User: What shape does this take?
Amino acid sequence: MKCNNLKNVYNTLLNEFGHQNWWPADTSFEVVIGAVLTQQTKWTNVEQAISNLKEHGLLEPDTLAQADVELIEELVHCCGFYRQKASRLNNIAQYFADIGIENVFNAPTDKLRDDMLSLNGVGNETADSIVLYAANKPKFVIDAYTTRIMDCLGINGNYIKLQELFEKELPVNIDLYKEYHALIVEYAKTYCGKKRCAECLLISDAAKV
DNA sequence: CACCAGGTTGACC
DNA sequence: GGTCAACATGGT
Assistant: This one.
């Protein structure tokens, strides 16, 4: 796999867009909920759903675990896939309530990642988002935008391959990981269409340095 | 009206 | 290992 200057790409994005300060949430459990709700969904809809859950006092493992799934469905309806998401959130909350949120997050990074992956509705990206933004541990989050952009640079690989590349090229730094992923999302939303990446010049130029 | 959004799952090859 | 339909609402 070619060695590109991912650090320079980061600096270019940061210079262009400024700090994104992800993840917006009051508590770490809210990050977990948001990570599931935002799957294939715009963040504005997630904000609405989180606000609904908050009004009903359901942003805690215990209460969410005990809430009726039908009520959760209503509250997260605006996020789409609302039946799966409601059921999965209920189940995930049960897990956190059983183990204890502190105990869950105190696990070593790799174990925590595996623990999250074992939950229904939590795949690679959601697991890593939880590890990085909720538990505050160093794991680089890959998403469809990242994959698309790397593809534009002639670098292809599956989720794990790309993640290994970023983690190998970059210093292990939680804040850098957090900011970088957020910047990629911001950049891609603004400049990079789904099919074509002709507008990806900002990144491709930075990668050549 | 078509397309996409800070994906995941289970079935299949 | 990879591919693909299902899952579903809301905004442009």
